[in-house]
Amino acid sequence: MSNIDELKSTGLKATLPRLKILEIFQAGKQRHMTAEDVFRVLLEDRSDIGLATVYRVLTQFEQAGLLNRSNFEAGKAVYEINEGQHHDHLVCLDCGRVEEFYDADIEKRQHSVAKAKGFAIADHSLSIYANCTKDKCPHRPSSPRHHTHL
User: Is the pLDDT of residue 138 over 90?
Assistant: First the structure.
């Protein structure tokens, strides 16, 4: 399915800003992106799409089910392509890098805890915030950031 068809199938008109932003996510250079990340890519491509338009399109894409939104670190919204498969996130407190994972045991345990408390999970997101323990991590900045709270 082409990007134009994909947008039309969600009821969104295939405008140039929507097509460009969808293409940025599909290019896959960075899986989890803030509105500012998307805007930076557009500036590098010498696009004249403004930051307000980026925010509006990201919200439209989220509402249409094309993108998933998560809030990591300091409440910043981060978007990723909705591939229809559930996964959780590990967020590095040193560099902000996000790694996805899926663990069947964690999923089962969450459902059993909810059931024991009288709930049936409709949806959930799990984000684990951690410090990198890898020697010579290629993503670690030269001076680590200090976090006093989440």
Answer: no
